[in-house]
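User: I'm putting together a teaching handout on how multi-component assemblies are represented. Below are the sequence lines for each component of a complex, exactly as they appear in our records. Could you produce the 3D structure of the whole assembly as structure tokens, so the students can see both representations side by side? Please keep the chain order the same as the input.
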Amino acid sequence: MGVSHIPINNMYKSRNRLCMEFISFTLLFFLVSCNPIKMTTDSESEIIHNYQKELSFTVVLPKYLPKNCTYFGAGVQGPPIGFTKEWFEVSYYDPLKGNIHINETDEYHELVPTSDNYSYIYFSSVRVLEEELVFDSNHVHTFWYEWNQNGIYFLVMIEGQSQDERHKLVDSLITH
Amino acid sequence: MNGWIGKILHIDLTNSKISEIETQPYAAKYLGGRGLASRLYWEKVTPDIKAFDPGNRLLFMTGPLLATGAQGAARMSVSGKSPMAYPEGYCYGSMGGFFPAELKKAGWDGIVIDGRASKPTSLLINDVKVELLDASALWGKSAYTVADMIHREYGDKVCFATTGIAGENLVRTATIFGSQLASVTAGYGAVMASKNLKAIIVRGTESVQVADSVRLKELNRYTIKIKNTVSLAITPGIGGTNHGHVLKEIGKRHCYQCGLTCSKLIYRFGNDPNMEGLRGCQAMEFYLPWVYGREDEPIKTLYDAPTLTNDYSLDTFELQGMIGWLYACYKAGVLTEEETGLPLSTIGTREFLDTLLYKIAHREGFGDILAEGMMRVHDKVSAKARALFPHNVAAIGSQDGVPPRAFIAHALLYPFETRMHPITVHEMGYLRMPWTMYQADPKSSPISPESFLRIARLFWGSEEAADQTTYAGKAMAARNIQNRTYLRDSLGLCDFVWPITYSYSTPDGVGDPNLEGEIFTAVTGIPASELPQYAERIFNMQRLIRVREGYKIPQDDFPPEYNFTEGLMVSMHGYKMIMPGPGAQPADLTGNKLDRNKFIGMLKEYYVLRGWDEKTGLPTKKTLEKLGMGDLVGVVG
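Assistant: Of course. Below is the structure of the complete assembly, with chains in the same order as your input.
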């Protein structure tokens, strides 16, 4: 087979070299592998700008950011949890644009809980569905918040953080 | 019917007849999408029918998960006899964006198009109201012009599918071009035009019924969370030329209802606000001036290249290999500007691209030969020019991206597919990247050798499947990967998302092999335990179609000969082919060849797993009857 087993240190001299190995391996391999893009914060304003061109409402970002968090696209990038840097993401559905969905995932936009671990909480007069989802098979644990305000459907995912921090963050997305 | 609408639109262009086909009898056995289309193809498109004959069928078929809110479920299968395949034969493409969902929301699980209209025609679907319209005004127009005309006439909310000048001139590689820059390969643009069908316009306003919407919502949340994988800021071809700095991502796009991020991004080129647009994947880098030493070429050439190609409705995969080959031929003195009429000395410039696209799309001069597609060009040029062809491993020409000599199971994946690039090779191909990253820096990826082995066991059937230095476990891995892919194509799921083999969001980095099944059950109410049976049925249907069309067993089940005779090369940068070996530890497969005897053993093992006769390679009577396909016993072979 022409196969040998060699220490990994002998294969790659540097991370850059590894990247070149990636790129050169085959073109097609990578063309199908270029999945989620982690955009840099300096392009954040341009991302918002681009969204804004297509939406009928002003893109809303949280006014409150927990410690060590930065804006990141239409969401927030926070302290890494494992390999995950994005622990917060906000999605919108714009009813006036019909088929324009910004990270929107649900067909019906109804505040229906999916498990027993939920409650409805109020920020000012806005009713927010708070739901804790735990998937035992993969030990995945997330909090989800949903609400409608001014005809816009909001969906927010938060991983980790205390309840107080989560609530402050959600509250800061709501127009009072 | 939760998940399905219940009816398929049937258009007979020859007789201007519009009717319906009941979905259920077909979906009960073949689900939807690629599976359902394969059965409808089998029933009508006999081997004597050519791709451009009125007797060929053009099938647009959605799946039960499309437009239900399920994540990564916006795809539609397009199939029929492909003029791009060599020889012509059954093939398939896939379309994303919003057109497929709009069709389903209009009240149709798919469209079957038969016959040929007597004059240019367009198909207007406004929910259940369907009309055939005179499209003389659209004929002769490029794809973007047609799109503009459609939106002016019918408004911004309609979705469309059309083909440009290349399709009209029956260029064998012509694409179907659709809303949100969607496109379909395999030459179906030319098939569409051969039927005098210039455009399909659709507007749908209904919803699709779901069995358990609450469970689906929960699964969507889970999917969003665990679909967290390796990211690249720019496509690798551009990155490899060290010109990545000319691009800046300024936004992203999604297909219908999908909240996941893929390669559909909005870029700004050269920091010029006038050069912003949706780009993605291979199409944005099929023509890189720098590859041809054109360092001074304006960035606008790169920006415009996919738009120009879409406008003619040509295939960027095909063009990429073709331009590389032309360049090699020119450099070697095998092809000249005089004999081709192409400005070969200017490859890499806008001038060259403009000329090449025009000549192919209009079938002018040497462009008429190139319009036949690379597989047929191969037979029409000199031996010296043929010698410079890239290796091809499927009936539609393109290079093997994830080679069998590095991924042993792929030796069984390439031959069994009718199209290039076969998406079955993505599952293992995707996973190599985070594994390699871990080897370089364990902090950069969760895919340790232990995680890789666990993924191999869960998704491919054994830990042995992970080891690319042995043939053990590869037959089962190939079978499992094929079945999952065929289900995905039949359900309407997206290749960029599914399966989720690994995740940056799970503690051990391992994805979830059961998620598609759970979503299927939430949408349709049908137990996920029935899916393997569907997969086997669909796979056998394709096997029978191919055999009926002249596929030879066992010789056509072998990958091309060079896999057995030529060692796997190092990369273009001279780096070794490092792959998972024993225990998923790194092994150097540089110079590796396939072992013929071991491959034959693996193939026999595969036949047995499929329930095929070990000698004939055909599904046995017992297998077909077990799958409820008794009507197909003895019809081929």
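A couple of points students might notice: The two ends of chain A are 68 Å apart (CA to CA). Chain A touches chain B through 70 residues (CB under 8 Å).
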